[in-house]
Amino acid sequence: MSFSWSCPYAVGGCLTLLTVAVLAGSFVPADNGAARAVAMAVTAGCCTALVAHRWTALALTALAVVLTAALVPFAEGVVPALITAAFPVALGALLGRGQRWMRTR
Q1: Which of 42-46, 78-82, 84-88, 92-96 has the lowest mean pLDDT?
Q2: How far apart are CA 48 and CA 74, in angstroms?
Q3: Helices (H), the chain
Q4: Is residue 2 over pLDDT 60?
Q5: Cys bridge to 43: 20, 53, 67, 94, which one at CB 3.0-4.6 A?
Q6: Domain ranges across the chain
Q7: Which percentage of the chain shows pLDDT scores above 90?
Q8: pLDDT band at residue 6, thresholds of 50, 70 and 90?
Q9: CA dihedral defined by 59, 16, 8, 82, rounded to 10 degrees?
């Protein structure tokens, strides 16, 4: 079991997550953190459904959580914003990974 970024889907997933984060930060209003989190959750789910290795999917999920945490406004504090960012992205990634698991079994 080795962690490899040689998979083209992993590199493409990173670029896709960065692109969606920039687009969500640019076009979604700053007070609408839920729309930004949903956009990142859907993207994380699509990216984790395409990669074959579970560690690569975990790394893509972590990147999506970090990018979403940077997009969500810290109105109530840092910890609630991180929870708000992490939950939908982790759920989207889990659904994407589960879809891949069901398809390959």
Answers
A1: 78-82
A2: 27
A3: 8-27, 33-50, 54-71, 78-104
A4: no
A5: 20
A6: 8-104
A7: 7
A8: low
A9: 0
Q: Identity (one letter) of the amino acid at 70?
A: A
**What own/partner pairs with CB < 8 Å and gap ≥ 24 does 28-36 have?**
30/73, 31/73, 33/71, 33/72, 33/73, 33/81, 33/84, 36/68, 36/71, 36/72
Kindly state the helix (H) or strand (E) to which residue 72 belongs, with its residue range: none
Nearest to 72 by CA among 32, 22, 26, 23: 32
Give me the phi and psi of 51, to 5 degrees please: -85, 150
pTM > 0.85: no
* CB neighbour list of residue 4: distance below 8 Å, 6 or more residues apart: 10, 53, 56
